[in-house]
């Protein structure tokens, strides 16, 4: 299919996204003040022009970006909004940049630089890694002087470069950062636009790996709308706002509002029933029926909008949680329902669980916490998803 055209007649298709979430009250990142932020993200589909969506969804006040640029292959083009290079985004709003003439190919790394001249809180954001400059405007600079390591010292391998962790046993941590919600390309022949809605295991990058595995001529955009800590039924607790609004709450914004979306992957892990009584109040523990009602509502809303829906089974919990019969029983029951419900599904559980003990992750696929997939595990999930997406075309 060709995605529908906007008023400018250029026919825009999203090539990369992230789900914006609320980092107010979190202390992972200090405010920005006279620094340039550089975010390097992978293109899942190519095109002949670029524009980006900048979001201040959770800000308490306006954000001022004095200057910005987008680059591919070392060539940078300055961005503007309504012809103005200085961009102000009101609290709760987002703004699209004017189109820039920049060719993007499948698998390219797209660089977005934003110069923030005044104290700006880290509020509307996602992703695990970004680059901060030393003080000053370094937009489009080939020599980007780093302030220092980001809180998580890792970068995502999107399948186009060697792994930063050669044996693949480290954390799979994708790039992202503040205010950048969407990158779109013009003139793409998109057969499918796949939105992946989920929690931490999704946020950690298997959608990007999936996109990298698909051939360039597949015409499939694979978009990550995962949020670490996210749940299907309940919004984040006040103590952890960055876990985001529930999948049911953000569905319209993060799925239906995605331009040209054709497919939805519902890829949640176990937060709905692993957090209550441990990190959130015990009375938030759902019943099996409530969990299935949540899945069914997501499926029904997607199908009503004409989307093709895929579910993924839930991968194993950490050993101390898997040892709780109630929680592990819910995981097993949810997976059995997914496998027998008649819906199309991808068996993530079978892909990375231990053969010796199916309640645990296979060591080769487990991150250090033995709850999340490592780089190898994320790539294994991506292979399973890519095989299914190829078959559905």
UniProtKB/TrEMBL annotation:
InterPro entries: GDSL_Rv0518-like, SGNH_hydro, SGNH_hydro_sf. This is GDSL-type esterase/lipase family protein. Coiled coil: none annotated. Gene3D superfamilies: SGNH hydrolase. It comes from Streptomyces cylindrosporus. Residues 141-176 are annotated as: Disordered. Residues 201-379 form the SGNH hydrolase-type esterase domain. It holds the Pfam family Lipase_GDSL_2. The lineage of its organism: Bacteria, Bacillati, Actinomycetota, Actinomycetes, Kitasatosporales.
